[in-house]
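The instructor's notes for this session suggest beginning with a concrete chain rather than abstract definitions. Hand out the sequence below and ask the class to guess, before any prediction is shown, which regions might be ordered.
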Amino acid sequence: MIRPTAVTALVLVLAAPGYASGLPFPKFGLGKDRPAAAASAKPKAGEWAQARSDIAPDPDIAFGALPNGMRYAIRKQQIPPGQAALRLRFDAGSLMEGDKQQGIAHFLEHMAFNGSKAVPEGEMIKILERLGLAFGADTNASTDFDETTYKLDLPRTDDETVDTSLMLLREAAGNLTLDPAAIDRERGVVLSEERARDTPSYRVYKSRLEFLLKDQRPPTRYPIGKVEVLQTAPAAEFTDFYNRYYRPERAVLVAVGDFDVAAMEAKIKARFGDWTPVGPAGADPDLGALKSRKTEAKLLVEPGAPLQLQMAWMRPDDRETDNTAKRKRDLVQQLGFSVLNRRLQRLARGTQPPFLGAGAFESDEYDAAEITMMTVNAEPTRWREALTAVEQEQRRGVQYGVRQDELDREIDEYRTALKADAAGAATRTPGSLAGEIVGSLSDDEVVTNPAQDLALFEATVKGLKADEVSAALKAAFKGDGPLLFMASPKPVQGGESALVAALEISRKVAVAEPSIPTQVAWPYDSFGTPGKVAETREAADLDTVFVRFENGVRLTVKPTRFQDDEVLVRINVGRGRIDLPKDRQNVAWASGAYVEGGLKQISAEDMEQVLATRVYGAQFGIGDDAFVFSGATRPDDLDVQLQVLAAYASEPGWREQAFQRLKSSGKTIHDQYEATVSGVVSRDLAGLLHGGDERWVFPSREEMADAKLESFKAEVAPALANGQIEVVIIGDTTVEKATEAVARTFGAMPARPAPAPPPTAEIEVGFPAAVAQPVIRTHKGRADQAVGYIAWRTNDFFANPQRARDTAVLGEVLELRLIEELREAQGATYSPNAAYSHSFVWPGWGYISASVEVPPDKLPAFFADVKKIATDLRTREISPDELARAKKPRLEQIDKARETNGYWLQELSGAQADPRRLDATRAMIPGTERVTPADVKRAAEAVLKDETMWMFEVKPAGA
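After discussion, reveal the predicted structure:
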């Protein structure tokens, strides 16, 4: 798997109205402003970053190194019990490849699962499945420009699981066979991944990187590589890269979990101590010098991409050892960016916003350059307004700096976030802890814990004045440039010259000091006389309490200690999708405008300001059987969280600006979907699988263009005003506190009428009939991309709960067969997939499916292969081993999920209205455990019939 780059991920979320304040919170240690005098050489083999720093590492982590140079980090984490995460990271990525090896670093990641001295080809995944690890979910790897990381998430920490996992990582490290025939079989899989990655957003990313890092190495070494190399590179090139870069001095093993640290260290030493490198070591790459450049522009016309524009200031990378002074400088600078981003967010939320979303940040591009960037998404016809607005806002920030009130607000928000992190630190998952350690390695950072980060923050902001932050923000925009890059779905008159001319015109306009926002108060701290409890019941086996208030509001509370200082809240109102019209298009797609529209008495912008020191969330969505409000908070802010959600449920703002912003961002959404095969599937499949029911059909361009806020309000407001209310609270709280908080908010609301059962017609949902030939849709992407999809109708869950569980295991077996046949045996595709669903809401609706991405000429073979697999599953019982490899990962995934608050928030939702859901939750594990080979065969006989098979394919237009 290719790891997504930070800039790519950043651009993808720009269209969100709240983008400016949603930039990632800075990880202390990501140094940006690095004085040359403090620059340092790469650490020695076996040396950790703290050896050259004044920063103390997290004391809960045991750091070490073997005589061969391999480093290791071990941390005991007993929550969740019995789980662990192993990561093996190599300082080896695509930047290290030779001209004839482009793509081999990533290809090697695939070969680690395809044969070693101790594990024959095709057996590694099966070994892990027998231990309960699911391929993809628990067993994965990623490759970037500068690193390759192998990941195993262990469901248990018994000796067999740990020893086998370490053995497999040791095999990947130094014992791969790299058999030429196995490489040839894997070529199609990697080429499938290359096809899937080649999207408009990826092409935009490549063009931008090539423009910014002109004549430097990163734009010549993308991790996916070159198609001709993937097709023809001989095994000798793989062996050469493997021997030169998969070496102990370039490796770090991270182990976090519920085990004894000394015992794990002994296992690591025993398993990896004999690892000796083969042949000469590979050299670190020459990244090339950053060229000195004045203002220039690059325009990329990329149909199917949203309009994206960046202004970039470039500086040579100058690495400085991670130290306290640098972290403090970084934090001061990040506070300046936060103020600037807050101003950009305010512009995006205005009455006539010049852009859809914008942000400012600084990044280190793989040690090739440091870049400060202003980035913006806009309507294609309004790029000049967007460019003018961000240029002038950047200049305003540099010229006038930040005000003390703006700085104090950001300090409050940072402090709140850091305190929440510190409070929940003890219950971080092994995977997240391992990820933090691995994430520190590329930049040679010292790993610190949230309490240390909070202490550094407090020391930095004590007495911090706006003048110091203003100076740091001004310094961040030093360097060559700005360079202008714009990706547009349509040609721009005047091309690149027009971009530069627009910039120069904007630069001539004087900017004024920023205005001071009006101070407001939170108006929703009281909802009337607290409600009284009418009934309390307990499900002791689920540690859950059910409360009913006199006004009819139902509350479900499950106190947990899965995550310290975390409380999840979900509010279900009315009947959701059931209440929407099934015969005409609705405005459910615009649900994102609901929260962004703020509240009747306060805007979203002002609400964020007045609640800056509080931890709360506000999301709105439309579920099958409820309109859903949700948020995550901490115990101290549960009252505020419920006030926010109660206000949204009872007095939404319905502001036109938020709805219009969403419509504006949707003007090119059809072009974006049509540009890729996966986009067309995402847009059309739900509507097709529900028999054309308009509640699932994506709206046309015309329907989106004609949509009105009043229509959205007319469809949703009555249900929210009159629908029954269910509150579900899961996490670090008590039944008493949750009950009191709900009594003061939802419990204080007027009683609502008891709902009548929904008309039968509204809960009847169609499913596509069997077809002799596939239903066809087309895309406008690459001519070698296609998707094949097959679905068989099953039933709803409650029609036969055990049969639904049997069918779920059948789905897992089907996916094993698809992987073994289409990926492992044929090498035809990267990610064949099986899926299944059995509705809790829609009677008779459920399905099991198989899908694949392949070139168009291989679609007939896919349909034939799936029919053959289905026939075999109908006519022969699977082996006990195959059943175990299907069931065990599923059971372990369920078991792991049950140790999270999110799982219980979903499982307990709706349980008071339909107690059958509680029985389903109780029986999930034992019901899956009792599935036998005979049950799987019976399920296949009932479902996987050729005569009921519905087929769907998406092919290139004109194919």
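Then share the key points. Residues 1-40 have pLDDT under 50 and may be disordered. The longest helix spans residues 324-348.
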